[in-house]
Amino acid sequence: MTEENDTIFGKIIRGEVPANKVYEDDDVLAFEDINAAAPTHILVIPKKHIVNLFDAEEEDAELLGKLMLTAKNVAIDQGLEEDGFRLVVNNGAGVGQSVFHIHVHVLGGRNFSWPPG
Ligand code: 5GP
Predict the structure, then answer these.
(1) Interval between CA 57 and ligand 1 midpoint (Å)
(2) Helix (H), strand (E) counts: the chain
(3) What is the model's pLDDT at position 2?
(4) Is a pLDDT exceeding 60 seen at residue 84?
(5) Which of 81, 79, 68 is nearest to 27 (CA)?
(6) Ligand 1 mean position to 79 CA, how many Å?
(7) Cα(17) to centroid of ligand 1, in Å?
(8) 0.90 cut: is pTM over it?
(9) In this structure, are residues 31 and 44 in contact, taking their beta carbons and an 8 Å threshold?
(10) Closest CA to 86 of 105, 64, 114, 63
(11) What is the overall mean pLDDT for the chain?
(12) How confident is the model at residue 66 (pLDDT cuts 50, 70, 90)?
């Protein structure tokens, strides 16, 4: 965990940058991705600044679990219960992480190939 959170998601958490929020509580925030890669593309983030899973500690286990359950609830709210949804967490620039505040992509509403590209 780092002291500063100068990422775009830090700014969204603090209300300095707008976002189309779909869920928020004391611990987590969910909002629409600005560049949707699927008909449903929601980002679920903790309010605590964790860079990615390499930065997560044992003490974050409950919070990480809450991200998963929030992703499920968001998917249900988005009408994805029948067709399902895909979660993606990019950990590191080498695999495509571009915002260094951990986030779970909730993707749905189209077909997805396997293995992912
Ligand atoms: P990553 O590539 O780090 O896994 O995912 C970062 C995601 O954040 C991308 O899908 C990108 O479209 C999204 N994103 C970047 N900047 C903003 C922003 O200012 N607002 C919103 N809502 N999403 C953003």
Answers:
(1) 24
(2) 2, 5
(3) 46
(4) yes
(5) 68
(6) 22
(7) 12
(8) yes
(9) no
(10) 105
(11) 96
(12) very high
Q: Is the CB of 65 under 6 A from ligand 1?
A: no
Give the whole-angstrom CA distance, residue 62 versus residue 12.
23
Residue 102 in contact with ligand 1 by CB distance below 6 A: no
32 CA closest ligand 1 atom index: 22
Q: Is 89 in the pocket of ligand 1 (CB under 6 A)?
A: no
Instruction: Walk me through the domains of the chain, giving residue ranges and CATH numbers.
Output: 8-108 (3.30.428.10)
Catalytic positions, please?
Answer: 103
For residue 98, give the ligand 1 atom closest to its CA. 3
Q: Which atom of ligand 1 is nearest to the CA of 88?
A: 4
CB neighbour burial string for 5-43, b if at least 16 within 10 angstroms, e if fewer: bebbbbebbeeeeebeebeeeeebbbbebeeeebebbbb
pLDDT of residue 4: 72
Tokens representing 40 are 């449903």
Cβ atoms of residues 13 and 29 within 8 Å: yes
Tens digit of each residue's pLDDT (9 = 90 or more) over 6-47: 999 999 999 999 999 999 999 999 999 999 999 999 999 999
